[in-house]
């Protein structure tokens, strides 16, 4: 054995002497190329550090492999972050996972090696050298290079956006962009409202969700049609019908940030444009109770309301842009229209504008047209399908657990908002039967009041119509008879109202 070891050592030294390092390296490369030539696979290396910079593709692959449901492996690395409720998995060190894309099977291997002792560097490198090696068949090379890496990057961005904390922004005069500070102030957005918990007709809810999803996935459509990648939603209806909850559900569904724009804090149209420029993509810009922020009343209705000028009583609308405090704000209707559908509204992409109002008839038609407010959503009183969602959310009742025929027959006439019903359910959530019974009694009382209110309104309209008819005939009626008719109308008003 000793003699054989000596012979091998002598042969090795002889080879090193006869064959220089350059020749040995060339021979190794030649044999490696031969092996690659006859192999049916090709390999792509993605290192964590590209020179001195972080490789974004490595981070995207790591994030994609940690969340992709299409990947199967026998050995994975499980992690759970601090204050996190979800467990993520990834590729273990020096292990591999298999993925499938458009019929092509690829294999990812996470290669981790110890880095050799490094010389002085202005940026310290990690002790471990990490990277991914992608093995794919040569016949699928075009699929991988053509669209697979783009798919991985897109999925990673989507996962990153869903995992990151969403923010709720608000504007203030103290943060004016002229002073160099950011005009928006933010807090974490933690609203629990979702479309599953939203008390709304399921058919209408599905239409809204489909429209939102089409918008979020419609980048190529908007580019092809030459339209700005934005969409407007108008939420209108009585107070307490869930307009704010709808906005929160939209943000949670798409994973967008919310910019709550307070118009009373904006002085000029120029400042309004600067606020728009400071908003990010994938966001929802909200103006709640827009009819109360500044005067955006219907110009046609105002012009036809009467021919008298110089009448500045309390019922007359204030000048456009003047708010209740008269603090010098000069926002105009034109400035707000350009904010939502002008050239400045295109300084970004994937934005949603949401306006809410309790009185849609007060808003100017120019603000409501398609292109500004593309979808009008009537947040009306609670319907029976929405009521069943509230019962399930607050009391845990399913449709088969309770006889709902009596409630179904009275809920439409009661005209109760989801907020009114929720208050009754919250107050009696420990006693389900009591909650339902009290809610039924409350609905019957409200339904009776609603019927009386409608009857009184109909009688008032009849009296008003009769007055108008008699006024037209006033020239043909003697003064004594006209006075008797007026006294009779007054007595009817006192009797009814």
TrEMBL record:
Cofactor(s) listed: Mg(2+)
Residue ranges with Polar residues bias: 169-184
Gene3D superfamilies: 6.10.280.40, P-loop containing nucleotide triphosphate hydrolases
Keyword Hydrolase among UniProt keywords: yes
InterPro entries in the cross-refs: AAA+_ATPase (IPR003593), AAA_N_dom (IPR025753), At3g28540-like_C (IPR058017), ATPase_AAA_core (IPR003959), Mitochondrial_chaperone_BCS1 (IPR050747), P-loop_NTPase (IPR027417)
Pfam families: AAA, AAA_assoc, AAA_lid_At3g28540
Reactions catalysed: ATP + H2O = ADP + phosphate + H(+)
Any single biological process term in GO: response to stress
Family the entry assigns: Belongs to the AAA ATPase family. BCS1 subfamily.
Protein name, as recorded: AAA+ ATPase domain-containing protein
Gene source species: Fraxinus pennsylvanica
């Amino acid at each position: 054995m000793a003699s054989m070891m000596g012979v091998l050592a002598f042969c090795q030294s002889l080879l090193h002497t006869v064959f220089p390092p350059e020749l040995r390296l060339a021979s190794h490369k030649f044999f490696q190329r031969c092996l690659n030539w006859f192999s049916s696979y090709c390999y792509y290396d993605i290192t964590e550090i590209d020179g001195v910079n972080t490789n974004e593709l490595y981070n995207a692959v790591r994030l994609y492999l940690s969340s992709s449901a299409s990947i199967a492996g026998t050995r994975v690395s499980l992690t759970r972050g601090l204050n996190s409720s979800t467990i993520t998995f990834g590729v273990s060190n020096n292990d591999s996972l298999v993925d499938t894309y458009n019929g092509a099977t690829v294999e990812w291997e996470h290669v981790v090696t110890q880095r050799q002792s490094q010389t002085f560097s202005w940026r310290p490198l990690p002790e471990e050298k990490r990277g991914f090696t992608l093995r794919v068949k040569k016949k699928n090379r075009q699929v991988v290079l053509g669209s697979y890496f783009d798919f991985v990057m897109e999925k990673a961005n989507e996962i990153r956006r869903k995992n990151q904390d969403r923010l709720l922004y608000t504007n203030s005069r103290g943060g004016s962009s002229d002073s160099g500070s950011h005009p928006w102030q933010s807090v974490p957005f933690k609203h629990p409202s979702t479309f599953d918990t939203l008390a709304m007709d399921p058919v209408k809810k599905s239409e809204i969700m489909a429209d939102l999803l089409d918008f979020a996935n419609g980048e190529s459509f908007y580019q092809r049609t030459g339209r700005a990648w934005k969409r407007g939603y108008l939420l209108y209806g009585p107070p307490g019908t869930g307009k704010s909850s709808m906005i929160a559900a939209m943000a949670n569904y798409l994973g967008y940030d919310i910019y709550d724009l307070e118009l009373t804090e904006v002085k000029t149209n120029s400042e309004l444009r600067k606020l728009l420029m400071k908003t990010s993509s994938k966001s929802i810009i909200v103006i709640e109770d827009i009819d109360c922020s500044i005067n955006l009343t219907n110009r046609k209705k105002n012009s036809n309301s009467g021919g008298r000028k110089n009448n500045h009583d309390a019922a007359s609308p204030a000048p456009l842009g003047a708010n209740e405090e008269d603090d010098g704000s000069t926002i105009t209707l034109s400035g707000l229209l350009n904010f939502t559908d002008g050239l400045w509204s295109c300084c970004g992409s994937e934005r949603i504008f949401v306006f809410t109002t309790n009185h849609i008839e007060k808003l100017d038609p120019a603000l409501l047209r398609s292109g500004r407010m593309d979808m009008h959503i009537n947040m009306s009183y609670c319907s029976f399908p929405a009521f069943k969602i509230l019962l399930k959310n607050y009391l845990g009742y399913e449709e088969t657990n309770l006889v709902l025929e009596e409630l179904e027959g009275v809920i439409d006439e009661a005209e109760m908002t989801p907020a009114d019903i929720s208050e009754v359910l919250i107050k009696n959530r420990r006693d389900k039967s009591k909650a339902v019974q009290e809610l039924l009694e409350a609905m019957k009382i409200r339904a009776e009041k609603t019927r009386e209110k409608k009857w009184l309104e109909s009688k008032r309209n009849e009296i008003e119509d009769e007055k108008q008819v008699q006024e037209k005939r006033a020239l043909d009626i003697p003064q004594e008879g006209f006075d008797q008719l007026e006294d009779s109308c007054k007595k009817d008003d006192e009797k009814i109202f």
